[in-house]
Write a structure and sequence with these properties.
22% of the residues are buried. The model has no long low-confidence stretch (mean pLDDT 90). By secondary structure, the protein is an all-alpha fold. Helix 1 packs antiparallel against helix 2, helix 1 runs parallel beside helix 3 and helix 2 packs antiparallel against helix 3. The chain is built from three helices and no strands. It is rod-shaped.
Length: 120
């Protein structure tokens, strides 16, 4: 293993950890949304987005360095980190949509129940 690979190892691990933490936060957010707690769902999605942004910025720094002439020996771990980042980013987008659907259903159901209660 050469020195260039050593540079990418901690960078890759940081991307994987930040993306993994984003996944964990978004999983909690969707559980809160399922239970109708949209305040905490929003808070946890905000935390997830911040962790994802951190992972993305780290990846972008490596790419920018390469475009400026630095060369890196591509490592399997860095490829895995990029794959993890993109997969979890897709998960976050889907979870945001699911939370929106939960909120819509929750609001619609509560409005119907209130209307029925008033009519009785």
């Amino acid at each position: 293993m050469n020195g260039e690979e050593n540079i990418l190892i901690p960078i890759s691990m940081e991307i994987i950890l930040d993306a993994g933490n984003a996944r964990e936060k978004s999983e909690k957010a969707i559980k809160y949304a399922r239970d109708g707690d949209f305040y905490n769902a929003h808070l946890y999605m905000e935390k997830a987005r911040k962790m994802m942004l951190s992972a993305h910025q780290i990846q972008t720094e490596v790419i920018q360095k390469e475009t400026q002439g630095d060369s890196f020996h591509l490592s399997l771990l860095f490829i895995h980190a990029q794959d993890t980042l993109m997969a979890i980013r897709s998960e976050l987008i889907l979870r945001e949509e699911i939370i929106s659907l939960y909120k819509y259903l929750h609001t619609t159901t509560n409005n119907k129940e209130e209307k029925q209660h008033v009519e009785k």
